[in-house]
Structures are given as structure tokens and as C-alpha cells.
Recover the amino acids of this structure.
């Protein structure tokens, strides 16, 4: 478990910027040290636990990059084309038994090892046969052309994959190219997920007229799984201090993180704060972010707790800025800063200085080819349709007070957030 101190999320300022929140999380949350070994086919999305130095060079041997004809550099045509007799044929996976004879060329195929002595390959499209069956090579080819030297991609011994790397398909490919069968990865971060609120019914259960189906829990669990977490679905806790406290206390020792949604505002029926304070410690972060209201950060028996707001869009946005960095820190992942891509605003917007805002937007290709962001027409933090019908979030920094059509803005695609 993470075993954090009770005051580790305490913060002095009145309003916390998104940057301060991420900074506090990344410095205070320590990585879990437990490892496990997984087969290569199961490694996608996992966090690599150790550096991997290349056990062999890539490519492992010098080979031809094309289908063509291999020659010694000493035999390259100089002022005019040159006809060379054929000597030998090397297929991919085959072996060049003998060195290429001076004044000869060898038929060679893509990926086949270069015969000893040969240093350059002519593409088959660039040569022709003469009457006596010799290969006529054009002049002007650079020595060494169309050859892939051993180690040109990665030399043996180089650190090729870093501990903390969240593995993508291309990282798995590299491990396979090294001939590795299994990888040491950080064990999955165990996250307990609760929704809170008397107004919630679980899908599949009867719903009273004044209830709505709990959607946040399923959104948050899906987001956590995309971050590689092992999720415990702990259902709905009712707006009751003792029930909340008991529910949270029970799961603390068996999880690395507790995530709740709802009940963290300051209304009388927001009981998460009091419940956590009765069994652990809690601070409310008033984050300078919209959508998003206070986010609760706490510690129960050394295990961190994050309480997200109940409004679905606020829950989504604060997940990205508080839960995502926490999970990455627990897994010891390398920093993965979110980098908005520049697009052109096709909307007008006014905002308060000093807080960061996220505007739900769709992208379209404008007449001149530029990418344009269209703002979702409504702004409520409860509108699930606004997340479903858009492509991502326009990030408007603390200093911005308004956006005019044509202005450059930064866009974060939903696809890049997890
Ligand atoms: P709260 O943060 O508890 O004050 O809730 C704010 C709003 O979000 C209320 O309208 C709730 O009904 C709604 N809400 C809270 N939890 C959920 C949930 N799990 N799924 C969908 N909506 C929720
Ligand atoms: Mg509530």
C-alpha cells in the first residue's frame, strides 16, 4: 500500500491551480514497489518495472533494405554504367556462404544478410540485363546505399525501454524484437470505487421516481481500467455519515486508492468530508478549474482517497487532473503531461481570469484546411450529452479572459487523456 502521512495533501492557499494540484500529487504520492511478470501478449498498457538494455543490436545483422543486387564498393560504377556478372543469390532468412567475388554482383532480397565484402545494394528497378546476362548497374549510387547496418536502429547495450514506461503496442514490439518473452511490470494499482448519494440507483435495480441511475461509477471505472488499474466496484453508499465511514474504512487496507464521486460540496447532505474525518484525515481542495468544484483529498489508514464532485462533467474533468496523476504516481510511471494541440476557435467565450476552464468541443476541417473547434452549445456540468457529442476539451489557461472566433486555442482529445 502507499502508506501516506495524514497531512500529505494539506495545502495552504485559498484556491489551488491545476498545476499546483498535479505538483502536490506527484511529489507526495510514492510509487508502489510490487512487481509481477507478464507474458508479452499481456504487457500492453502495463507500467514497465525495470530498464531494458538491448540484449542484441537491431537489426541483429547487416542486411539489404531492398530487393536488388549487392556489390563491393570498389566495384561501384564511376563515370559510366557498368555490367557485372552474377555470382550468388541470398534470400531473406538465407545465408551468404561465400564472400562476394571482386567484379561480381549477387542477387539479394529485402532482409537478407549482406554477403561478406558487399557494401552497397542496387534496387532491382534500377538495373537491367545485357545480352550476355550480366547485370548493368547505373552510375551515381552512393556507397552503402540500401543497406541496413547491424545496430543502426538500436546498438547492443543501449537502454531502449525505461522503467516507468506505460507500454504501448510499439514498446511491446521492441521487447519482442529483443526476443523477450516476459516483462517485469508494476502490479496493477487497486482502486476501490464508490458512488455516494440517496438519489442514485444502480442500473439493473429498481429506480424510484426521484432517483437517477448512477452513471459516474461506470465512467470512472472505465477510465481507471484504461489507466491499467484493477477496479473494485463497491456500489453506492448512501448519504449517511456512518455508512460512508464504515464502507470506506473496510476497503482502505486492501486498496491503493479509494475513489468516490458525489457528496464533496459543502451542503448539509454532503457527508463524505465528515465521514472521512471520522476515520482518517481530509482536506478539501478548492481547485481553480471549471467545470469542477471542491475535490476531496484524504488519507485513510495510509491509503489515499480522492472524492470527486457528483456532476458528471465535473467528475470527468477533475478525474483527468487529479486521479490520473495520482494513478500514474502510484504506478511509478514516467510523467505523461497532457499536451493540447493548437486548433482554431470557431466560437466566442468569456471566462474569469485566474482559473482554468475546459470547454467541450468538436473538431471540423475548415475550408482552408485548418482544424476548427466548435463549442458544445450548452454548458451545464450535468450534461452527459456534452461529453458524448464532442471530441475533446479546449483548455483555456488561467490568464485568458475571452476567446474570439479565429483565435488559436489548445485542444485535448478524449482519446489522449487516458
Ligand atoms: P453532489 O456532488 O453529490 O452534490 O452531486 C451533484 C450532482 O451530481 C447532483 O445533481 C447529483 O444527482 C449528481 N450525481 C451525483 N453522483 C452521481 C452519479 N454517480 N452519477 C450521476 N450523477 C450523479
Ligand atoms: Mg450528493
Amino acid at each position: 500500500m502507499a502508506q501516506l502521512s495524514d497531512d500529505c495533501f494539506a495545502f495552504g492557499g485559498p484556491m489551488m491551480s491545476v498545476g499546483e494540484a498535479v505538483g502536490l500529487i506527484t511529489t507526495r504520492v510514492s510509487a508502489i514497489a510490487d512487481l509481477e511478470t507478464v507474458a508479452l501478449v499481456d504487457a500492453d498498457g502495463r507500467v514497465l518495472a525495470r530498464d531494458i538494455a538491448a540484449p542484441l543490436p537491431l537489426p541483429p545483422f547487416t542486411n539489404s533494405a531492398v530487393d536488388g543486387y549487392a556489390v563491393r564498393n570498389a566495384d561501384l560504377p564511376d563515370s559510366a554504367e557498368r555490367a557485372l556478372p552474377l555470382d550468388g543469390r541470398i534470400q531473406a532468412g538465407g545465408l551468404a556462404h561465400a564472400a562476394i567475388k571482386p567484379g561480381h554482383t549477387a542477387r539479394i532480397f529485402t532482409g537478407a544478410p549482406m554477403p561478406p565484402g558487399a557494401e552497397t545494394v542496387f534496387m532491382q528497378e534500377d538495373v537491367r540485363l545485357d545480352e550476355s546476362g550480366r547485370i548493368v548497374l547505373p552510375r551515381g549510387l552512393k556507397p552503402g546505399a540500401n543497406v541496413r547496418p547491424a545496430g543502426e536502429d538500436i546498438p547492443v547495450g543501449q537502454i531502449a525501454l525505461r522503467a516507468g514506461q506505460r507500454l504501448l503496442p510499439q514498446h511491446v514490439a521492441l521487447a519482442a524484437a529483443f526476443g523477450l518473452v516476459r516483462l517485469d511490470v508494476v502490479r496493477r494499482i487497486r482502486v476501490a470505487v464508490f458512488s455516494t448519494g440517496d438519489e442514485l440507483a444502480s442500473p439493473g435495480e429498481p429506480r424510484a421516481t426521484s432517483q437517477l441511475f448512477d452513471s459516474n461509477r461506470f465512467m470512472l471505472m472505465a477510465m481507471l481500467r484504461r489507466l491499467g488499474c484493477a477496479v473494485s466496484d463497491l456500489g453506492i453508499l448512501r448519504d449517511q455519515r456512518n455508512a460512508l465511514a464504515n464502507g470506506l474504512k473496510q476497503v482502505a487496507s486492501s486498496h491503493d486508492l479509494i475513489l468516490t464521486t458525489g457528496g464533496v460540496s459543502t451542503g448539509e447532505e454532503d457527508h463524505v468530508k465528515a465521514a472521512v474525518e471520522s476515520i482518517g484525515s481530509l482536506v478539501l481542495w478548492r481547485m481553480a478549474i471549471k467545470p469542477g468544484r471542491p475535490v476531496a483529498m484524504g488519507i485513510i489508514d495510509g491509503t489515499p482517497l480522492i472524492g470527486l464532485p457528483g456532476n458528471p462533467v465535473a467528475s470527468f474533468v477533475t478525474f483527468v487532473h487529479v486521479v490520473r496523476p495520482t494513478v500514474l504516481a502510484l504506478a511509478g510511471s514516467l510523467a505523461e503531461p497532457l499536451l493540447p494541440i493548437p486548433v482554431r476557435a470557431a466560437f466566442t467565450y468569456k471566462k474569469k481570469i485566474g482559473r482554468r476552464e475546459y470547454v467541450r468541443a468538436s473538431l471540423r476541417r475548415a475550408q482552408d484546411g485548418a482544424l476548427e473547434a466548435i463549442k458544445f452549445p450548452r454548458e451545464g456540468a450535468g450534461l452527459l450529452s456534452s461529453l458524448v457529442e464532442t471530441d475533446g476539451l479546449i483548455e483555456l489557461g488561467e490568464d485568458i479572459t475571452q476567446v474570439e472566433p479565429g483565435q488559436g486555442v489548445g485542444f485535448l482529445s478524449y482519446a489522449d487523456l487516458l
